[in-house]
Amino acid sequence: MKKIIPLALILGAAAAIIIWKPFGGADPDSTKATTTSTSVVKRGDLIITVNSTGVVEPIAKIDLKSKASGEIIELPVDEGDRVAKGELIARLDPTTAQNDHEQAMADLEVAKVALEQAIRQEERQRQMFQQGMISELDYDASLLAKEAANSAVVRATTTLEAAGERLSDTVIESPIEGIILEKHVEIGQIIASGISAVSGGTIIATVADLSRAFVKTSVDEVDIGQIEPGQKATIVAESFPDREFHGEVLRIHPLAKTEQNVTVFEVTTQVDNNEGLLMAGMNANVEITAGARENVLLIPREALTDIRSLARIAGSQASNNPGGGQTASVRQGSNSGRERGGAEDRISENGGSKTGKLVILVNNGKEEPRPVEIGISNFEEAEVISGLTEGDTVLTSVTSKALKDREVLLQRLRDRAPIPGMERRRR
User: Fold this and answer.
1) Rounded mean pLDDT of 328-356?
2) Range 220-249 average pLDDT
3) pLDDT tens digits for 102-152?
4) Both 287 and 323 in a single domain?
């Protein structure tokens, strides 16, 4: 029992010290229920940017395959080479295709000669039929033979054209102007056709057009509403940190995806790369200009509120300082549901929307809710389209004195040395 009394005395003394002097001295503003801060409406420029990271990708990337099969006998390109449209990439052994082409040409000549003979035979048979020297059946047979010979010519012509295509397929040319990203084969390698092979054929090389490039980035759903196709973008590659590349938003993927529990949308930005400095696979930072305004009215974002928040502030002020210390307009706002002339009624009369944005205008020490129309905004400032003029003063924050005192008291309790006996209770 003798040990308990000193402990109780110590606890009581510590609590008395904390309660008697929580703030280290008298506060000259201790009589105020709330503290406020204001800001003046000013003119300035406002730029809204959205930043993200991505990877450089070519605007056109083609895997070259051959329609023909065979051995590669010529391969004049290597990785990193620039090629023009129509430039030779590879040549296959044309022996088989050349033989087929020559055979098709010979077959066509034979078919043409046979058609000429059939035409002359049909003419003789027609004359003899007109003279009554042969029957109609014999004449019809000559007509059929002529048509069969004509059909043979058509088939031979088609076969020759197909053989010519197979022969030309042994020469693989670049379909675009670009850079050889990868070379997948070497001279002497036998490749499979991209048409007839079940595997889809052998890739000879990968060509990419890097005169313009893509940068695909993931943008948080919080910012995606500000981004539209056509907006300007600045791209900085990690390989060229002191150089800016310019582009624009090309498209926004309509389907969201989740990355590390964050919902994002894929945004594709097209960037000008005429100098060819950007290479496929480079990491890049993208800054999209989602909006820009010059010489507009600006207010801090924290000055914006709505009718519900305004009612809560007014109610809190009335309860903390009953009967005085606040202006009539704010007190009326707290009773807007019961008194005519409250904040809601006056806002509606001024043409404001109950679902729109409001500010608290400070004029000669009086606070008055004012509906405003807001344009673009970032995390710090917002554009004022209507409702305020340059030089107006608006309320930016209202802090409860009781809440502030409570936070200071809790912090002092945390900072003080442990009181004897508290460790045992925690355990």
Assistant:
1) 42
2) 90
3) 999 999 999 999 999 999 999 999 999 898 888 999 889 999 999 999 999
4) no
Q: How far apart are CA 85 and CA 62, in angstroms?
A: 13
Could you tell me the sign of the dihedral formed by the alpha carbons of 242, 244, 245, 251, in that order?
positive
Tell me whether residue 135 is in a domain: yes
Nearest to 292, CA basis, from 44, 58, 123: 44
In whole angstroms, what is the distance from residue 277 CA to residue 279 CA? 6
Local confidence band at 325 (pLDDT 50, 70, 90 cut-offs):
very low
> pTM (2 decimals)?
0.55
As to burial, measured by CB atoms within 10 angstroms (0-12 exposed, 13-18 middle, 19+ buried), residue 178 is buried
pLDDT at 379 over 90: no
Q: Return the structure tokens found at 105.
A: 């040409």
CA distance 308 to 328: 18
**H and E: helices and strands count for the chain:** 9, 18
C-beta atoms surrounding 252 within 10 Å: 14
Q: Which amino acid is located at 361 in the chain?
A: L
Backbone angles phi, psi at 275, to 5 degrees: -80, -10
Residue bearing tokens 């509606």: 348
Among positive and negative, which fits the CA dihedral 170, 176, 178, 181? Answer: negative
Residue 198 belongs to a domain: no
On whether residue 185 sits in a domain, the answer given is no
pLDDT at 196: 73
**SS3 assignment, position 250:** strand
Contact 68, 96 (CB under 8 A): no
Give pLDDT, residue 39.
85
Residue 339 confidence (pLDDT) above 70: no
* CA–CA dist 61, 83 (Å, integer): 13
Domain range spanning residue 248? 50-58+207-294
